[in-house]
Amino acid sequence: MANLRRALRRIAALFRRRAAEDELARELAAHLALLEDEHRRRGLPPGDARAAARRAMGSVARAKDLHRDARSVAWLEDLRRDVRHAARALLRAPGFAFLAVLALGLGIGVNTTFFALVNAICLRGLPIDSPERVLYVSTRDARNQQGLLSFAEFEDLRSRLGAARRAPSASRGVTTPAFPQVGAYTNTIVALNDDRQPPDRVLGAFVSASTFELLGHRPILGRTFHPDEDRAGAPSVVIIGSEIWQSRYASDPEILGETVTVSGVPATVIGVMPRGFMFPANADLWRPLAAVRAEIRESRAERRLAVFARLAPAATEAQARAETTSIAAAWARDFPETNRDVQLDVKPINEQLNPSVMQRAWIAFITAGMLVLLVACANVANLLLMRGAARGQEIAIRASIGATRGRVVRQLLTEGAVLAGLAGLAGVAMAWAGLRVLAGMVPPETLPYWMAFAIDARVLAVTAAVCLGCVFVCGLPSALHVSRVDLRATLTEGSSTILRMPARRWVSALLALEFAAALVLMSLAVMSLRLDAARRQAEFQIDPTALVTMWLTLPADAYRAPGTRAAFFDRLDEAIQATGSIGSIGLTSALPYGGGQQRAVQVRDAGAGARGSGFDAGEDPAPTATVISISERYLTALGVPLRRGRAFTRDDGRPGREAALVNERFVQLFLRGREPIGALVRIGDQDPWVPIVGVATTVRQQAVGTEPGPVVFLPVRASPPATTILVARTAGKPGDAVGQLRRAVERIDSNVPLYRVMTFEESVRNASWNGRLSDAIIKSIAAVALVLATVGLYAVTGYTVERWRRELALRVALGAKARQVGWLVVRRLLMQLAIGLGIGLMLAVPFDRAFNEPAAGGGVGMLDPGALLITGLGIAGIAMIACVIPVRRAVRLDPLASLRAE
Amino acid sequence: MPDRVELLQGTLDLIVLRALSTMGPQHAYGLAARLEQVGEHRLTLNQGTLYPALVRLEQKGWIRGAWQRTEANREAKYYSITKSGTRALEKQTERWRRLEGLVNALLLEKP
């Protein structure tokens, strides 16, 4: 009790040091006064009395020290002193402090950013109660392909386990099942409409009633689904997410009980889920399983449901696997047509929904981050060594007045810790800013809601650990080195002799490698810039002026038949024609850069018979092309000229009037100099052969790849898509056109939502986010590598100059010119640079092979001599600028001062 | 001074408590003088070493310090023993006696 009280007071004493010191000083003064009185009373004259009092008292400083030790926690007091000392030392050398914090901060920043990305995408997982106990149940077919479950299978799974729960161990000796709760979902896109606002397109999901309880989430308003609402015939209900509730309904609690239209079907709102619940992936609206179409519900072969289950408290994953395996065996017996070779598989839901961090790409990513950090640490270690060289005398003096080696090491490590702490703050700030930029590149609804690029507690913990590691990696070499001082030698001969660097060769090697890495990364970045430029020149660029894109989705229930969709597009076309004033408007299933379905295609001559997979396509085992559906004015609206033949007409795509367009790339790859017009193309091997009626200029359709790929355009009427993108080259203000289009769509069907209204440029940017993200990462890493290499060079040069001080001073004293002295230092620098860049060049060869697929026409590689030369010179230039300060210091040495100082 | 002895580790606290309990509130100088007197000048007690003991005891809550005036109208910090200090003194004294008995038995035991 007393000891606990004392421990607390000792810690408290840390924070009221000033008061305690004052009190002690007062007490000691009083003590001395009393002693003095005593001595005077014994007859000593005042002066002698004071001296005698002091003698009797002993050393006041020592008494204070002992008091401090007893009063407070000694090592904490020391730490506090060390930190203050370190902060003061760093403030005295602001340039050094800035460089060290910059280098280490960059390293920590890159590392934190990378880890935050990996954490967001692989590690964080679903924000649900104990996610490791929630298992994802999937099927595996005969070819071991993972698949979903059918409704019948889900119901059966649930009723078997549910029944077992109700009658525990009754007849079959079954104990509690592994899964007391089983849930299922399937994603959907719905058109939400009501009397309040124009229709919205909303990501949603059909979910089982058990989903919410199983995941541990409650509504903020109303209720979730009842088990009855899983079954057909239940009243039509809907739960909305807080995002819609706020944006569309202004958080109106009266929404409960209101009837809204969900994809054309009236449904009563029964609940509102809290912010942060968007299961399974960015859903903002939930419908019960009862609302799924009957033919899907009733078919055993239609596997559409993702099934998941929570493990019973005592159950294990192995037990769950055993149970599902036996259920799968029973199905194979009972339903041989659909379930003969179908296995059931279970794994934690996060393993299913998140990529594994153990994949090679992620490991490479983390390793790259660690390498950058390591290089940063090495640089800071160099900086500290350089500083240590200048501080030899300070350390020697400390040692000579009694500081032990451990104490000196601790002091130097504290300095390292202060640096690492500052760098950690800078790094986190950098990572925060970087993550915001990266997150801004990801279009909405692309990544599941729990993969937000954010710095959470785990990231902070890792960064803190990394900082701590940095203290030792950066600080220890110099601390050990500097503390191993030869007192006499240092104090008599001067600072430069204390650092005999056995590791100097390592420092040079490291520096050379840093420059090599900087060259490789910079050339990568330069290559990607040049690729962009080359692409812009070589590829046809769509003029984005006044080009607006918007998406519309036909509600699945009302437009299930292709005929109804075709009819909708016909009417839309008429409506657009009728307005006339908008400009040219086209429809497409996928925008340029927006991807589109890649399908196997077959081609043959018009006259040739049904000759299998077409003529001399021998080299391409399975020619594939992007297949998209467009309306007749789509290419006109985009401003893509036709090279041959004609565009689609209003009749193309009607039965008996099949027609296709292809791009030039398609002709180049698959028709090789033959007449394209009239040649026949077939998608897959089931569809009919379709004649090619025209050839369009090649426009990039897939965002990735060095070359734009082949594209087949089909008339929108031939295979009308449910989700279509409108492209409008507007004559007047884009806003007016959007309004007119909205009204036109509303007049045809008020339940069809028009969304993602944006400029063409924006949609291209969104579509190519993946490439832009990795591009941004490569470029920033390249910049970081250059900064680090430069700081490294600066540190080593500075250190060299410091070490050579004496020699340089002698040379100057003996008449060497400033130029000669400067050259001496610069020569070394150039050597380091040359070696580094040489290694970089050699490394660039394999890198070039790895990153640059042999492109047919591009011809932009890393090994372009001009680009390499410019990059190398640029790096060398920046490096030389960084060394101006130490070289100038060398040149301007005052020989007298330098020699006398030592 | 041939027969001066150093205090055993840990005994200073006990001695200070005892002195305060028998003599009432004392300042550090008074305590030092008292210890020299009781020890008949055989104790090597650097007066400065009293302070760590005092702060230790104060932090444990066994003594309490307060500024007062001496008879000669000097200011000084007077320490007095607290209730829990008195209890601790009893316990420690008891412990010391037992320890003393044990040490005596072990060291002075006739072979």
Report on the architecture of this protein:
The complex is a heterodimer of chains A (902) and B (111). Chain A is of the alpha+beta class and 902 residues long. Chain A is built from 29 helices and 23 strands. Chain A has a six-stranded mixed beta barrel with strand order 4-5-10-7-9-8. In chain A, strands 15-16-21-18-20-19 form a six-stranded mixed barrel. In chain A, helix 20 (562-579) crosses helix 23. Chain A is globular, with a radius of gyration of 38 Å. In chain B, 27% of the residues are buried. Chain B is α+β, with helices and mostly antiparallel strands and 111 residues long. Chain B has helices at residues 11-23, 28-38, 50-60, 83-108; strands spanning 26-27, 63-69, 75-81. Chain B starts with 10 loop residues before the first helix and ends with a helix. Chain B has a three-stranded antiparallel β-sheet. The interface between A and B is medium-sized, with 30 and 26 residues.
